[in-house]
Amino acid sequence: MPVPTPHANPLLSGFPSPLTTLAELFAYPRYLPSSIDMPRLMQSGLRHLEGQFSILASAFGQAGADQKPDRRFAVKDWDENPWYRMLKEGYLLNAKTLAELAESIHLDDDDDKSKLSFFLGQLVDAMSPSNFLATNPEAIRLALETNGESLLNGFANYVEDMRQRRIAITDESAFEVGRDVATSEGAVVFECDVMQLIQYKPLTSKVMSRPLVIVPPCINKYYILDLQPENSFVRFACEQGYTVFVTSWRNPQEDMRGTTWDDYVEGVIKALEVTRAIGGASQVNALGWCVGGTLLTSALAVQEARGEDMVASMTLLTTMLDFTDPGDLGFFLDEATVVAREQSIGNGGIYSGKELAFVFQTLRPNDLIWPYVVTNYLKGKSPAAFDLLYWNADATNLPGPMYAWYLRNMYLENRLCKRDELSMCGHSIDLSKIKVPSYILATKEDHIVPWQSAYRSTQLLGGDSEFVLGESGHIAGVINPASKQKRGYWSAGAQGDHAEDWLASAQSTPGSWWTHWSAWLKRHGGKQKAAPANLGDSRFQPIEPAPGRYVKVRVE
């Protein structure tokens, strides 16, 4: 979870300027020419010159057939029109040369070099000729065909996005929570200041005696796990014969400005307690995703310190416990920015969900920013309706004290994975004392939780662990319905200290990891019993139908 810095443009509030960052990086003496690998730089320069001649020579010939497809240049003008082909080829050549320049610089700190490459990439992506009206053939043609109406519509879209303080990435009018997404039948059976607990109606006549409680990330709405019936993980778990509970985190408003990390951990513990009581079981199975997995693991560590034993197994989906390598989010973090957050909201305040959502968009600008700048503003069109992107745009605030504490102790100082260095809820934390069996899923293209970082959890937890690596990224790799038989996963590798050694010995299987997980979880589900006829029990009566009130509160 990054710590953004201010930006002059209100639409880009929270997005650190690549130009500013690059200027700061090159201000240090270690970036002087003496620090540059000159032979490598000269070779790059010669390749660049050769590439320029090649572009000129082929400008009026046929486009190269061996080029890797690039969605930014998909329309035929970029290959068939000599002028646009020169623009495209020149841009791609310059982008490659700049990347090689960054690689040629010697830096003592690998983090600085990675940061240089990352923000240079941000700048290069922003300068693509496809992003500008004067050099986008499709936008120009559309403007001529519509007598400028597309430009007027684009300006209107820009004004609306400025008003909303976001870039629209989907048709938000096409969905409503509880009508089109989050439609699984259930009821809220408990609520507190930080969350509601939803119990779902069983879909089988018999269920496993141990219920399943799911802890989604608190930085997003829970219904990523219950988008629509065909891609709902909640529905899949119900179909596998589990009584399923999900925590629906509250979207913090001003009355939660003092809420802490410990309050969230206690919320998870309360969800485990209520699930166990309603399910009539001595233990439950628990699943956490991303920050939800970090909270769940923290809760189990606190329970271990308290001598409580409520969980039979733990599933962690793309979760980080060791923050040594925090992925792309680490580029936004340093001591100064964390101190700034601590001083501004660490003792009370709210961190805007829209600001946080935009920062996540900047991690994949060619997927989540520039295509929509082109579509919305240059072409004057509205984005298509897509349930996953609707969820992505449904931002969630965070309480300042919780957020600042999380940044300091997890991302910056990496204290969770160190024995007895961190205290939560009045107890010292030691992850090695968590002895329950765990199923740990990572995804190979995850830019938020690098899969190698997720693998380190197998070395931290005290119980037996099953590590599985799915294809795709942080979201699509998790929401991979078993019925569609898409992608694949690796499993059954020999666990040791090194993630790459595990992968070398792992077996590749086509299809969704969901079925693999279900087979694993059944070993910890307990005996079968008749499915409950009603939701809740005498102590925890249904409060309102799912999806409940909390998930419907939107960030203004």
Spatial order of the strands in the main sheet? 15-14-13-12-7-6-4-5-2-1-17
Our Rg estimate from Cα atoms comes to 25 Å
Low-confidence stretches: 1-34
| Number of DSSP E strands | 17
CATH-derived topology of the largest domain: Rossmann fold
> What is the H level of CATH, i.e. the homologous superfamily of the largest domain?
Alpha/Beta hydrolase fold, catalytic domain
Query: What is the class of the largest domain in the CATH system?
Result: Alpha Beta
Helix content: 25-40%
Helical stretch count? 20
Structural class: alpha/beta
Largest sheet features? 11 strands, mixed
- The domain tally reads 2
Explain what this protein looks like in three dimensions.
The chain contains 20 helices and 17 strands. The protein has 556 residues and is an alpha/beta fold. The chain has two domains: 10-137, no CATH class; 186-326 and 415-552, Rossmann fold. The chain is globular and about 70 Å long.
Secondary-structure map:
Layout: H1 18-26, H2 38-58, H3 77-80, H4 82-104, H5 110-126, H6 137-145, H7 149-164, E1 186-191, E2 195-200, E3 206-208, E4 212-215, H8 233-239, E5 244-249, H9 261-279, E6 284-289, H10 291-306, E7 311-317, H11 335-345, E8 350-351, H12 353-362, H13 365-368, H14 370-378, H15 387-393, E9 398-399, H16 400-412, E10 423-424, E11 427-428, E12 438-443, H17 451-455, H18 457-460, E13 465-470, E14 488-491, H19 499-505, E15 507-510, H20 513-522, E16 528-530, E17 544-545
Parallel strand pairs: 4-5, 4-6, 6-7, 7-12, 12-13
Antiparallel strand pairs: 1-2, 1-17, 2-5, 3-16, 8-9, 10-11, 13-14, 14-15
Helix pairs in contact: 1-5, 2-4, 4-5, 7-14, 9-10, 9-16, 11-16
